[in-house]
Amino acid sequence: MKNVLIPLVLNLIFMFLCSGCNTGSKTGEEGQKCFDNNSCKGHLWCIDGFCVDILDYPDVDPADSVPDRESNDGEKPDDEASDDDENGENGNDNPDLIDECDFSVEVTSKEDLDSIVNCRAITGDFIVEETDLEEVVLPHLEEVWNYFSIADNPKLKRIYLPKLEATGDIFGIDFNTVLTEINLSVLSYVRGNMVVWGNDSLKTFSLPNFQKADEGVYISFNESLESIDAPMLESIWKFFDIDHNDSLKSVSFPVLESALLLLVSRNSSLETFDMSSLHDVQGVRIVLNAQLPTEKAEALVDQVLEKRSFLDYTICGNKDGEECDFDWDDLD
């Protein structure tokens, strides 16, 4: 029923808006034409070529009306607009954007999200925990200086942070049981730990521009997760832990060079991994991955030993390998 009503509601909106159109009004403002890249000023949404304040029409879901990426005749979609466009060099200036929102944010509702939609940086914490939100969408957010956490949101399906580049003490996405989509296309740096834990419906986790974590990376207990890739990740200062992801089949970190300890354990479906550049690591534990060929794990150890004279490692419980007989405390 919702999909039937949306076009009718939109048509009524556009008829109302266009009734007041005049040749002297400015592109990008409410009721006027969108910019060439399908964006508008401030919090306005571009729908069918016109700028609309969705907050005035709560029955309309903007996600159902955003133009498809392939329908823009080669133009960049709004989430890929350049910084020059955003800053007005091509006539698309957005005076509502705020360089630094100098506070911490604890989101409990859609209204809380709307209040920070124009923030480029949040200088305190950003916390979205135990809400009824179905999506977290912040198209302009570039940096969170301190604690970043999206956790325990039972209805959350989508996280869309296409400009987020860096976070502070911790980056956590945890126990969002119906989460299926995460867009972190430019995230490159986490000052503390990255923790992705207990997201039962998440099937892929991709970080195309992620380069460095100053503490550890922990990706664990995501029961539907099938693939993890970070093609630009170079260094993890402490632990790199991929543990107990029951559906995980492939892991790809082709340029990763260093970590204190690598732990790949209890991923019952894991068949392969790519860590072909890893050489600076003090400990390796590859254990209880029933479908991972033991020779794959042994080849990684040999690769590291070509650069190091000593390596503390354990390989057991993998496919065609010896059984494990050790205290799990040894993995710490």
Indicate the overall shape.
Answer: elongated
Please report the number of helical segments: 4
Cα-atom Rg, whole angstroms?
23 Å
* Proportion in β-strands: 25-35%
Average pLDDT rating: 83
Biggest β-sheet strands, sense, barrel: 10 strands, parallel
The span between the termini is 53 Å
Keywords:
alpha/beta; 332 residues; ten-stranded parallel beta sheet; six-stranded parallel beta sheet; disordered N terminus; 4 helices
Describe the structure.
The chain is of the alpha/beta class and 332 residues long. It has four helices and 25 strands. The strands form five sheets. A ten-stranded parallel sheet has the order 3-5-8-11-14-17-20-22-24-25. Residues 1-25 and 56-92 have low confidence and may be disordered.
Give the SSE layout.
Layout (H helix, E strand, L loop, with lengths): L1 H17 L26 E3 L2 E3 L30 H4 L18 E3 L2 H6 L5 E2 L3 E4 L5 E3 L5 E2 L2 E5 L6 E3 L5 E2 L2 E5 L6 E3 L5 E2 L2 E5 L6 E3 L5 E2 L3 E4 L6 E3 L5 E2 L2 E5 L6 E3 L5 E8 L6 E3 L5 E8 L6 H12 L6 E5 L16
Tell me briefly what this model is.
The chain is an alpha/beta fold and 332 residues long. 12% of the residues lie in helices and 27% in strands. The chain has helices spanning 2-18, 83-86, 110-115, 294-305, and strands at 45-47, 50-52, 105-107, 121-122, 126-129, 135-137, 143-144, 147-151, 158-160, 166-167, 170-174, 181-183, 189-190, 193-197, 204-206, 212-213, 217-220, 227-229, 235-236, 239-243, 250-252, 258-265, 272-274, 280-287, 312-316.
